[in-house]
Amino acid sequence: xxxxxxxxxxxxxxxxxxxxxxxxxxxxxxxxxxxxxxxxxxxxxxxxxxxxxxxxxxxxxxxxxxxxxxxxxxxxxxxxxx
Length: 82
Known about the structure:
about 20% helix, 2 strands, alpha+beta, 3 helices, about 80 residues
C-alpha cells in the first residue's frame, strides 16, 4: 500500500463544485462566484454564498467563519452533534 496521501479528482485539479447548484467558479455567473469551503474539520463541502441565501451570509460576516448548513439547524441555529 502506498503511503502517499489520497486526493479526490477535484482536489487534484483544484476545481470544486458548489454542493447546492453543482457548478464550479467558472460556470457560476454571480457576484459571489468564489466557492467557500466549510470550516468544519473533514466536511469538505464547497458552496457559493449566493446559493445559501442571506442568513448564511450574515452568519459568516458575524462569526468570521463559514460553517455549512449540514452542521446546524436552519430554523433555530443549534449546532449539530456531528
